[in-house]
């Protein structure tokens, strides 16, 4: 069986088992949080209590540890029952305590953050749903009370549009699930009221009352759905991603251990994963395409690079058996391939200074491995490791620049940041001090630099290709207004976008940003797109956030623009 297919099949099977176990435990978390909330406990306190009571952090750590141990055993070519308990304990110890990735983080440390993510997911998702359901109930109650008092708050002509808004808000409360609205009777009740002039007085009163009663049922359903979404979709995805990456690494640990003990295996062929073509150029391209004396991508046993080469690396080896390995180990031959690469690609491999040293004849392997692979892959300049390492960091002081060099400095960093698979921020204070902060795949926290440094500062950050919406999120806008930034920039593979504040900007006014962004402005953009107001080329996935930002820029009185990087 080909190494990549064997790897994919085994890891997929092991992760499926992990997912099943996580779902079961997740159901316990959901039930316990709901129980505490029904007793009157605040959502934040309920989540904190339940995760501590159920010891989620330790439980999930054990589930992932079991997955990585099983993967290592499978990579070695054995079944779990063939390995003693003592051996499994030793394998687990090594895999949990031995860092492999460029960020130097141990698996035990990486898993510690899952508890925090789960907690925040539940709190934010349930809070949003409860707020939306409260809004729906309030809208329905206003209609009913207005009718009962004889002082209708909505004119009959405006009623259909009002009901549309109510239904949209109701769908947000139950995560967009129309089937839930039908089950609760919200859709049917709203439909009856669309033509109030066709109803008798008694029937109209009944219709208004039905709408209130249907909407009143929404809150319980909204909480149930929000809990499920937070735990079984958002948090499970995050935890599963760690389990999958670490299990892949563990499988290859076992695979290489097995191969090293087999005298018939004399070498390995390095092959790029199917997903690699979507990634930035890196050292994997050299290992797979260069000739080291035995043919393209072929290494004799003991000379092969460790796999994974960098975080999220899914490239693999195929075994080469005795008699099939022909040639002589000449790693300097790899220069033939490297010499054919562009100057930019050489800088990505070696760094600016390293590329010059390579061109002067220095050993390419020493230049590549002078620092951690993920850092070398970026290869910007002398401060690359401080600004763009894979390790999540507190703010790191990088440099000080003249204020007339701010734009030039931003552009220099953004060229490298856009290649990253995790978010990184560069902060330039109003005095010209430059700080970098390394974040996670979908977020970066630069707040710890302090309010004093952030006020009037210019900040830029990247949105990785897997996470970008091609403009700012409501979290980005909140940071601008909360910390009184002068300018915020975002960059991804297609666009650069920018917010610039002024003396009229409504700083500190962020309580309703999430609702304005995710509900009001989003619905406006959605409605306009349906009626073709944005033209035939409008793509909601690429342009939706951009149009929402245009709307909020007017409301909160700042300048916003998005420009193509091409």
General description of the model:
The structure is a single chain. Helix 3 crosses helix 4 (85-97), helix 6 (114-149) packs antiparallel against helix 11 (218-260) and helix 21 (474-483) packs across helix 22 (513-530). It is globular, with a radius of gyration of 28 Å. The protein is built from 23 helices and ten strands. It is of the alpha+beta class and 566 residues long. It has helices at 3-38, 43-53, 56-76, 85-97, 107-112, 114-149, 159-173, 178-184, 186-192, 201-216, 218-260, 283-289, 334-339, 343-350, 352-359, 364-368, 373-378, 384-388, 406-417, 451-454, 474-483, 513-530, 540-556, and strands at 265-271, 298-300, 316-321, 396-400, 424-428, 433-438, 458-462, 487-491, 495-500, 559-564. A seven-stranded mixed β-sheet has the order 4-6-5-7-8-9-10, sandwiched between helices. Strands 2-1-3 form a three-stranded antiparallel β-sheet. It folds into three domains: 3-120 and 224-258, no CATH class; 265-359, no CATH class; 393-564, no CATH class.
């Amino acid at each position: 069986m080909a190494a990549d297919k064997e790897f994919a099949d085994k890891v997929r099977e092991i992760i499926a088992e992990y997912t099943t176990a996580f779902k079961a435990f997740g159901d316990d978390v959901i039930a316990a949080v709901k129980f505490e909330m029904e007793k009157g406990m605040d959502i934040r306190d309920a989540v904190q209590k339940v995760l501590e009571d159920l010891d989620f952090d330790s439980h999930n750590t054990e589930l992932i540890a079991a997955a990585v141990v099983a993967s290592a055993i499978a990579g070695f070519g054995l079944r779990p029952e063939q390995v003693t308990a003592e051996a499994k304990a030793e394998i687990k110890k090594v895999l949990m305590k031995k860092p492999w990735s460029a960020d130097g983080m141990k698996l035990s440390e990486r898993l510690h953050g899952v508890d925090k993510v789960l907690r925040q997911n539940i709190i934010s998702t349930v809070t949003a749903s409860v707020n939306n359901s409260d809004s729906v109930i309030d809208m329905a109650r206003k209609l009913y009370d207005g009718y009962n008092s004889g002082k209708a708050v909505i004119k009959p002509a405006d009623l259909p549009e009002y009901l549309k808004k109510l239904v949209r808000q109701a769908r947000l409360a139950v995560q967009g699930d129309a089937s839930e609205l039908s089950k609760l009777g919200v859709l049917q009740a709203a439909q009856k009221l669309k033509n109030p002039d066709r109803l008798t007085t008694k029937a109209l009163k009944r219709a208004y009352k039905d709408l209130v009663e249907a909407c009143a049922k929404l809150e319980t359903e909204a909480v149930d759905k929000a809990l499920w979404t937070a735990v079984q979709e958002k948090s499970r995805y995050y935890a599963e991603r760690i389990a999958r990456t670490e299990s892949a690494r563990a499988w290859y640990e076992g695979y290489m251990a097995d191969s090293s003990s087999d005298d018939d295996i004399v070498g390995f062929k390095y092959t790029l994963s199917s997903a690699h073509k979507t990634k930035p150029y890196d050292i994997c391209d050299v290992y797979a395409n260069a000739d080291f004396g035995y043919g393209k991508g072929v290494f004799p046993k003991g000379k092969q690079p460790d796999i994974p080469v960098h975080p999220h690396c899914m490239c693999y080896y195929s075994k080469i058996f005795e008699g099939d390995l022909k040639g002589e180990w000449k790693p300097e031959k790899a220069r033939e391939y490297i010499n054919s690469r562009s100057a930019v690609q050489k800088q990505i491999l070696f760094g600016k200074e390293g590329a010059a040293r390579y061109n002067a004849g220095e050993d390419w392997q020493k230049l590549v491995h002078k620092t951690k692979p993920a850092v070398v892959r970026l290869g910007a300049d002398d401060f690359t490791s401080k600004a763009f390492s894979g390790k999540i960091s507190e703010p790191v002081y990088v440099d000080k620049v003249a204020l007339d060099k701010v734009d030039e400095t931003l552009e220099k960093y953004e060229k490298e940041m856009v290649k990253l698979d995790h978010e990184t921020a560069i902060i330039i204070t109003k005095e010209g001090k430059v700080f970098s902060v390394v974040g996670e795949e979908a977020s970066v926290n630069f707040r710890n630099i302090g309010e004093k440094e952030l006020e009037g500062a210019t900040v830029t950050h990247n949105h990785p290709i897997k996470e970008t919406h091609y403009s700012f999120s409501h979290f980005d806008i909140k940071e601008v207004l909360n910390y009184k930034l002068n300018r915020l920039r975002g960059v991804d593979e297609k666009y650069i976008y920018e917010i610039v504040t002024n003396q009229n900007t409504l700083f500190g006014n962020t309580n309703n940003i999430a609702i304005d962004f995710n509900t009001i402005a989003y619905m406006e953009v959605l409605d306009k797109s349906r009626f073709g107001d944005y033209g035939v080329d409008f793509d909601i996935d690429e342009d939706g956030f951009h149009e929402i930002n245009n709307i909020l820029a007017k409301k909160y009185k700042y300048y916003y623009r998005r420009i193509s990087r091409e």
